[in-house]
UniProtKB/TrEMBL annotation:
Residues 1007-1018 have a biased composition (Basic and acidic residues). GO terms for cellular component: basolateral plasma membrane. Zn(2+) binds at C1111, C1116, H1193, H1198. It is a multi-pass membrane protein. The chain crosses the membrane at residues 454-475, 496-519, 539-560, 572-592, 675-694, 706-727, 761-780, 801-825, 861-880, 887-906, 933-950, 957-973. It comes from Myotis davidii. Residues 997-1006 have a biased composition (Basic residues). Keywords: Cell membrane, Ion transport, Membrane, Metal-binding, Sodium, Sodium transport, Transmembrane, Transmembrane helix, Transport, Zinc. This is Anion exchange protein. Residues 380-403 have a biased composition (Gly residues).
Amino acid sequence: MAPFQAADCLVVKGMDRALSGPCCPPFAGSPAAEQLQDILGEDDEAPNPTLFTEMDTLQHDGDQMEWKESARWIKFEEKVEEGGERWSKPHVATLSLHSLFELRTCLQTGTVLLDLDSGSLPQIIDDVIEKQIEDGLLRPELRERVSYVLLRKHRHQTTKPIHRSLADIGKSVSSPAGRSLARSPPAGPSLHRSTEDLRVQPRISYGHLCHVQSRSMNDIPRTQNPDQVRKNKFMKKIPKDSEASNVLVGEVDFLDQPFIAFVRLIQSAMLGGVTEVPVPTRFLFILLGPSGRAKSYNEIGRAIATLMVDDLFSDVAYKARNREDLIAGIDEFLDEVIVLPPGEWDPNIRIEPPKKVPSADKRKSVFSLTELGQMNGSVAGGGAAAGGGPGGGSGGGGVGGGSSTDDREMPAKHEIGEELIWTGRCFGGLCLDVKRKLPWFLSDFYDGFHIQSISAILFIYLGCITNAITFGGLLGDATDNYQGVMESFLGTAMAGFLFCLFSGQPLIILSSTGPILIFEKLLFDFSKGNGLDYMEFRLWIGLHSAIQCLVLVASDASFIIKYITRFTEEGFSTLISFIFIYDAIKKMISAFKYYPINMDFKPDAITTYKCECVAPDTANITGFNASALLPPNTNTSLYNPLNLTALDWSLLSKKECLNYGGRLLGNSCQFIPDLALMSFILFFGTYSMTLTLKKFKFSRYFPTKIRALVADFSIVFSILLFCGIDACFGLETPKLHVPSVIKPTRADRGWFVAPFGKNPWWVYPASILPALLVTILIFMDQQITAVIVNRKENKLRKAAGYHLDLFWVGILMALCSFMGLPWYVAATVISIAHIDSLKMETETSAPGEQPQFLGVREQRVTGTIVFILTGISVFLAPILKYIPMPVLYGVFLYMGVASLNGIQFWERCKLFLMPAKHQPDHAFLRHVPLRRIHLFTLVQILCLAVLWILKSTVAAIIFPVMILGLIIVRRLLDLVFSQHDLAWIDNILPEKEKKETNKKKKRRKGAHEDSDKEEKDPPAGVTHSDSSFSDSEPDRSSSRSSKTFKPKKNIPEGSHQYELLKHAEATLGSGNLRQAVMLPEGEDLNEWIAVNTVDFFNQINMLYGTITEFCTEASCSVMSAGPRYEYHWADGTNIKKPIKCSAPKYIDYLMTWVQDQLDDETLFPSKIGVPFPKNFMSVAKTILKRLFRVYAHIYHQHFDSVMQLQEEAHLNTSFKHFIFFVQEFNLIDRRELAPLQELIEKLGSKDR
């Protein structure tokens, strides 16, 4: 079972339940929010199931009554339209504030049954009525009448199909499944009645009523019918393992006060046809009231239904312990609710669901903004004031779609990942990359078997062969065909195939690049001018550069990439995108030069346009050797000068005329009509059609799957369409030319370059200098592209491999140098296009909810097949020759434009052309003054212009050095912009992020200085034990720990907590741990727990410090407690979503986090008279729960090592002290203790 992705969760393998444990930071604001933190923080479980909520209203038809579905919610509200034949569009539920207050009153005065153990609707109704009568809320004589109403049939609203196929009708009639559905109420596409109408009169005895109703309910299926689920299209919108919440509201004439009940079942149950879809019900809300207030009851029902699909309130509903917890959930909802003035908004207007909704985490926690504010600027003041001081402010709300970014939330930190941590060991980073990638290697292949991969393969393949042909042709011109199209094809196929097969990031596509092309031209000219052999000289440069790349890999030099921020990434990415766009347009313009258009063409003068072939002069004919132009084995006697004079020159084609030395005469000879315009149509049509089909996914036409399929294959469809158009017109547009024979472009070279013999000896060492330039170029180009591909916005779950990527680039450089093939490095635009073609979104989403981006299909299949196809393209030449080059230029243009999407630099550039009031509501516009944004953008534009100029001149050889220059420019920007501004429009450099951490370390300096002395002594409570849990004192000399894992936390001498610590140590010396953990008489419970929490932190700190050499990344790649329990880390602030990490990394995160909590004077006050915060107990419980996980890991994974070190006595007594303490005050849930439950029971029984 894959680990459950919940916040800092414990995954129990083989079980359906996962225990999670986020320690939510303190709630800010109302008492309700603080109470919610206590509710949600005490019992940390896996995320609760998604709730499908259905509201049924009681309908009267004379004496008959039925429950009719009126609305439903998964995420947004859908109403049954007044016509009763269709559902409304999903929309944001707009509630009246009064209905929320009435709902609050309902829960205060009505019946609340939590964890009711009932499995059928009659039983639930019976329990609710009994409770109402018991509490005096319902008169006993109304029991039967209320029960009769609540057990009426339910009629659901579903969409009727326009027609059904004969095959479907036949299946429903003849198949056993169809017959069973006829007996049981289907959830199919029809208006149906799903609960048996008992036709029981109200005066019938209640016992007989229950008996008959129960018998009838037994006939209704209580489990999901697979065929029923398959046929119900709406079920596809409901997430797997969802549960239902049913809301029943109505009015009756026999009640004089409302009948209100809120029920939560202890286990969800299928209640027959109560719900329109076969989803088990977990919650039931009932509101029956006196006649005359139907609209009010309906609004209250909508209010509770809307609350039940609210992420935060649904958590409260699942975890509520009593009525007050539910009230607190409503109060918190009211704290966050937005009120619209009645005179400025029409409540009948349905609000479209937003593209992005804020996460409930923002309501659960408050993120500290002081860290950045204490740097080179403030969070909300000075020159960085949010909203905009002089110069334009935030740009207003404008007409943008509205950003869901909270004004109080700081942007995410610049996080590259653990792959770029400097290890300090030779090839340390490479070894870790291999260890990280090896577990994913097999999945990299089977994850690629998806229909989406076919589209990606065709798209990238066409991009690669176009790139290979383009650069091959340019290389041939630059190197006198020592490297041409054939070498480019073979090199692309070989290098790309090996890289995708073995690299750290197979989504990266290798290709030749412009700077390498310029270097090759300069190198060829230098070699030719100095009488050196170009291929041999190039071989040695390649070998030296490969060795230098391996040296960079060995020294973990890739770690400097963490200093590349958005400023450098976007500058480099934008430059490459502009190059693609510029080259595509340039090639299209060149078509107009090859096939010129008569700009002076006049339709009326069409009769005057002519072109004819005229025979050359006789003297020219005599000297013209016509046979030289003929193919072999042709009878040349026919083509002597005499025969040429006898030719009818006016009948010759243009090509024949020029071949035989004739002249073209006429005013239309220099023009070639149609080809240029047709080429432009193919070029722009391919680009615009691809763009349109990509956006088709978000249109309103056709089902979701068809739209997704069209969008995924948009490029393929566009290419096929315009290839077909070109074939229909039959014009001789320029076509793709692929070599048909595998042989070197030049006949005087082979496939292997000899390293010696053609150049002087001094060339071999001298080639180190030009190799250094190549290495810088390769390193920067490769690693910047890798950073762009691995950026967190792509949500890659498999580890990156910067060192492994560079290693293979170096190996391939040496191989290509020996074979005389071009050098290859990561191609930014094609790699981004590869990522874009493999993006995944949720296959099912709630009505009205935008599909959520899930990540990228990470695999090696697409890249591997692309380069296999590139290699065999020689054999596909007869097919590929039908693809017009303008179509491929259109693909190039699309790749360049598409790679600009999502680049903040491009969004900021567009702001120059927009008035402030019309600017989009970007988050950075809310927090950084507009003039500062423009200044930052102008700096980027200036840098980009310099790079473009260098790229376009001979000075392009220093292009890689200028990329390094971008990093220097970014560092200089720290002198101009505040850290607050840079946090929003760029990223903060790593050393700036550590600034606040260093301040904390200075405050702990005293602890560091004293650690050596303290670590020699065992922590309190460990000095009295042996390996069999006795209370005798062990030999202290057996303790081998020379230092703790983290600095110890000291309690100031003279404080009351210090006195409590001494008391604890004294009571531990008595040998009675049960007595030692008891609260001393007259002492404050919070203070006692705080003192012991600090003590346990120091004990575990010491114990783990003894086994750190055994607990490594290799030995403990996952933080676990045996084979069934696995822990993921999340702290709610720095790491908001759980991550799977190694045990050393997890414990480092944990101990650092605990240290920060203990150092926080607002949580753990050390001064006398300072009160503990309201949420102290919750925080302390979470600390102790997480510290227990270290014990569990040590016992399960390292107890043998502990015994070898003879430290088991200290471990056993420390754990015994810990477990007695948490049991004494019920500080850890029993389920969290499951990994060591057997040991805990043994400890308890032995103590008794």
